[in-house]
Amino acid sequence: MANKRVRQATIRELIEAREVGSQEELRKMLRQRGWDVTQATLSRDLRELGVARVSTPEGARYTLASGGASASDGNPVLEAVLPPLFSTVDGVGEMVVIRTVPGGAQPIARAIDAESWPDILGTLAGDDTILLICRSTAARERLVRRIRTLAGR
């Protein structure tokens, strides 16, 4: 477990210090630091760290979606992860759809799930879209307001 923490700290340091565009590029950087990891291990580390691959004018790159902020359970903190990855929120009936930058849906959905809000029955996330199923129309309205507030919109 200590090796995992050190490896993940190295990954965090590399992503914060440089623009990293692919897992293969990151694997090469890790290898230069003495870490020979498989693609599966690297993918798991990126997911656990809350790293998202986002589009920038210079091309896709990895970023710590939560700015490094995570709860004690390792989940990204919603207040930190939502603003930089959020695009729009809308809803109908008992459903809410959140649009994110490419690669932003998974970290946001993970952070929302960690909140354990009673108004939400379930969360589904793709690459840039999250579907939330709410308990009622009133719950959806509360949730949309809360998401907009947290996103600073």
Short description:
With 153 residues, this protein is an alpha+beta fold.
Write the layout of secondary structure elements.
Blueprint: H1 2-17, H2 23-32, H3 39-49, E1 51-56, E2 59-64, H4 78-85, E3 86-92, E4 95-100, H5 105-115, E5 120-125, E6 129-134, H6 137-151
Antiparallel strand pairs: 1-2, 3-4, 4-6, 5-6
Helix pairs in contact: 4-5
Task: Explain what the structure shows.
It is a single chain. With 153 residues, the protein is α+β, with helices and mostly antiparallel strands. It folds into 2 domains: 2-49; 78-151, 2-Layer Sandwich (Gyrase A, domain 2), CATH 3.30.1360.40. Helix content is 46%, strand content 24%. It contains 6 helices and 6 strands, in the order H-H-H-E-E-H-E-E-H-E-E-H. The strands form 2 sheets. Strands 3-4-6-5 form a 4-stranded antiparallel β-sheet. A hairpin with a 2-residue loop joins strand 1 (51-56) and strand 2. Helix 4 packs antiparallel against helix 5. The protein is elongated, with a radius of gyration of 16 Å. The chain starts with a helix and ends with a helix. The model has no long low-confidence stretch (mean pLDDT 86).
Descriptive terms for the model:
elongated; 6 helices; 153 residues; single chain; Gyrase A, domain 2; two-stranded antiparallel ribbon; alpha+beta; 2 domains; 24% strand; four-stranded antiparallel β-sheet
